[in-house]
């Protein structure tokens, strides 16, 4: 038998009487819920729940650099040729960006161009054609899915 095995016999000790607690009630029970602020609106309910703002009309482009057009080696580039080359997913909106160099004329069709990309393509003797967005009024429809894709 060791010291930590010693214990008083059952019912030998009795809980101290709690005096002056009134009748029942929250404080008479000994514990309060975590975060209880005495009837004031708790902090966890006061702070905002969601962060930021998801624009339901956001148009997301897949970027393709001018250097990738040089490596592609095609004289005419459309969104479909970029899909076939594996640079863009099907049904993606394509934006051509100006990183890299282009030293041969290329006819490029895409949904959007940066100013640097447009300047690089025309400086190499190529041409730029904007493909209209596949939406009725140029903007994607406002839906709940746009809020989930942020």
Mean pLDDT: 85
- CA radius of gyration: 34 Å
Number of strands: 6
Distance between the termini: 65 Å
| Shape, per Cα inertia axes | elongated
Strand content: 5-15%
Number of contiguous helices: 5
Along the chain, the helix and strand elements come as: HEHEHEEEHEH
Keywords:
single chain, 150 residues, alpha/beta, 3-stranded parallel β-sheet, 21% helix
What's a concise summary of this model?
The protein is α/β, with parallel strands linked by helices and 150 residues long. The chain has helices spanning 43-46, 66-72, 79-85, 115-123, 144-148, and strands spanning 61-65, 76-77, 93-97, 107-110, 112-113, 127-130.
Question: What features would you describe in this structure?
Answer:
With 150 residues, the chain is of the alpha/beta class. 21% of the residues lie in helices and 15% in strands. It contains five helices and six strands; from the N terminus they run H-E-H-E-H-E-E-E-H-E-H. It has helices spanning 43-46, 66-72, 79-85, 115-123, 144-148; strands at 61-65, 76-77, 93-97, 107-110, 112-113, 127-130. The radius of gyration is 34 Å and the shape is elongated. Residues 145-150 have low confidence and may be disordered.
